[in-house]
């Protein structure tokens, strides 16, 4: 693989360039237009939403209009930033279909999460135009995830996974009673879990691509996308999974009000970060090296997922045990689970980091182990010739120079 920014087959030429540009402008304008036109409807919905907690708002000295204004403004900021970044990438890289796909994904996701997300009730008159955005945006996300940055299907089975993801998102409109429909309140739990699974597979596809490519440029581009994808995946879990496990978020009170005020804006902010990482990956990836950020993001996202699953499972098991032995649940289950998680944190962090280093940062992992072994040898070895041999071996294995030699200053008489 040559060290080019884009593979030759991803470039467009002649008539295809102009057709692709025209199509991009039509789709982007349609999605942004639908999202903006729906703002007055969404304003009324926000107003009714916060009026349900008017008593709590009054205690804070707020009115329902303030909550509605805040949510509307955050959505418009997201739409503006996504459209600006997508338009800029389109302007700079409109001769490459992968770049155009990524730019259109940015615009469409901004249009979707401006005000058309899963918790939004759509009036019948708006069903068709809103469905274009609700279905088109996730489709573009999955296509871009599996094909960025070089337009190749790298992970085995990636075509199948991408096709399944596209079919699931299409079923949200074609089959509204589908158990995978995240837009159907009755199927919200199963829809969120399936969507989270599709996002996880997309992240795995990008990580696999990074591990397989030998092009430093493509690796650097993939790092930026992986970082953005990990960031929004974590935010997705913290925003859309709590209602599944904590039904009290649907009950009147301060918890529901805070969740309605800040949960989705947090996810919208994470999307802004992902748009920036996508733009940097395409346009300015050479300026920055984010190995440390990506490495830590992978470690702590994996840890967060594992710890949440362990905590949830341990609480369920312990509550069942308490119910079996004393006939009722106990707060002690939560205390024990919390203490267990605290004890598990450091061993789990080391294990996860070791596994990620072995799989994706093998050279650095091997170098660290070689240097650790040499430090032990240098501390214990008294034979100078053997120490010199070990030093040469350590330098050769960690730095891999073409030639290495060692000169030792003779001891003065």
Describe the structure.
This protein is mainly α and 413 residues long. Helices cover 76% and strands 0% of the residues. The protein has 15 helices and no strands. The chain has helices at residues 15-37, 39-51, 54-60, 64-93, 97-115, 127-147, 158-174, 188-212, 216-240, 242-245, 254-283, 291-326, 332-360, 362-380, 384-399. Helix 2 runs antiparallel to helix 4 (64-93), helix 4 packs parallel to helix 11 and helix 5 (97-115) crosses helix 6. Mean pLDDT is 75; it is low at 1-7.
Oligomer: single chain
The assigned structural class equals mainly alpha
List SSEs in N-to-C order.
Answer: HHHHHHHHHHHHHHH
Question: Could you report the average pLDDT, rounded to the nearest whole number?
Answer: 75
What is the tally of helical segments?
A: 15
Q: How much beta, percentage-wise? A: under 5%
Straight-line N-to-C gap: 58 Å
The coarse silhouette is globular
Number of strands: 0
In percent, how helical is the residue content? over 70%
